[in-house]
Amino acid sequence: MSISPSKQAAISAYRNLLKTQREVFTGNIFSLTYILDKAARKETYSRFMQYKNESNVDVLEEKLELADQVSSLLRQNGVKAVREDEGSTLSK
């Protein structure tokens, strides 16, 4: 059984978003990180499943482009907290 190119692109975009979320939310010292990571994964899964039976190529391309944009945005603008001595500061 062969996977269609559009399905393979969707799988790739989904995995890329999960990887980005893992990178952005891992290593953060706040316990809220776990909650944010779990919520992000749930939302990603929900959005991908919403369009799993979509056959309109234009819609699929638009959604895959959006997934790439979200991944890039998270990578570029993700904020990590770093503990310094007694306090903590936020840094990119």
UniProtKB/TrEMBL annotation:
Keyword terms of this UniProt record: Chaperone, Mitochondrion, Transit peptide
Coiled coil stretches, renumbered: none
GO molecular function: protein folding chaperone
InterPro entries to which the protein is assigned, alphabetical: Complex1_LYR_LYRM7, MZM1/LYRM7
GO cellular component, one term: mitochondrial matrix
Protein origin, superkingdom: Eukaryota
The UniProt record lists the keyword Transit peptide: yes
UniProt subcellular location: Mitochondrion matrix
Keyword rRNA-binding: no
GO biological process terms held by the UniProt record: mitochondrial respiratory chain complex III assembly
Signal sequence, start to end: none
Predominant place of localization: mitochondrion
Family in the record: Belongs to the complex I LYR family. MZM1 subfamily.
PANTHER family attached to this UniProt entry: COMPLEX III ASSEMBLY FACTOR LYRM7
Quaternary structure, from the entry: Interacts with RIP1.
Its job: Assembly factor required for Rieske Fe-S protein RIP1 incorporation into the cytochrome b-c1 (CIII) complex. Functions as a chaperone, binding to this subunit within the mitochondrial matrix and stabilizing it prior to its translocation and insertion into the late CIII dimeric intermediate within the mitochondrial inner membrane. Modulates the mitochondrial matrix zinc pool.
Protein name per UniProt: Mitochondrial zinc maintenance protein 1, mitochondrial
Organism encoding this protein: Mucor saturninus
